[in-house]
Specification:
about 35% helix, 8 helices, globular, about 140 residues, five-stranded parallel sheet, alpha/beta, Rossmann fold
Length: about 140
């Protein structure tokens, strides 16, 4: 027994478009960005950060000890590359600063193309990172 419901039954209702409104959940205004990198291109990116976020205090620190001893006021982003990640005491930074986010810019393909659990098996220091971002040369 076959019933013909007609073309009007199979047509989906017209889609209504809604305006996109970006939302920020629990916004915290970043007060400082600290860069520590062996790569000159990463260090030079501080000018881009200053241009896009003029309210942020951007500093480039070349000494891993200075970064490890960091005591920042307010929300701070710490950007490290693979070399700095191995030299900076990230746990000490976290103990001394309650409102810090650590970002790793990695050249290592396994780190930025694998699930976090696999990358952490090969690189145990990644367990403490807030974000891992890949970077190609």
């Amino acid at each position: 027994m076959e019933t013909n419901l007609g073309p009007e039954h199979h047509a989906s209702p017209p889609q209504k478009e809604f305006a996109f409104t970006p939302r920020i959940i629990n916004p915290v205004k970043i007060r400082a960005v600290i860069l520590c990198s062996a790569d000159e291109a990463v260090r030079a990116s501080c000018s881009s950060i200053r241009t896009e976020m003029p309210w942020v205090n951007v500093r480039v620190l070349s000494s891993p000890l200075a970064v490890s001893d960091l005591r920042a006021e307010g929300a701070t982003v710490l950007i490290l590359d693979d070399v700095a990640m191995n030299l900076v005491d990230v746990e000490r930074v976290r103990r001394n600063n309650s409102d810090v986010v650590v970002v790793l810019l990695s050249f290592i393909r396994l780190i930025h193309s694998s699930p976090p659990a696999i990358a952490q098996q090969e690189y145990p220091s990644l367990e403490s990172e807030s974000r891992v971002c890949g970077r190609s040369k």
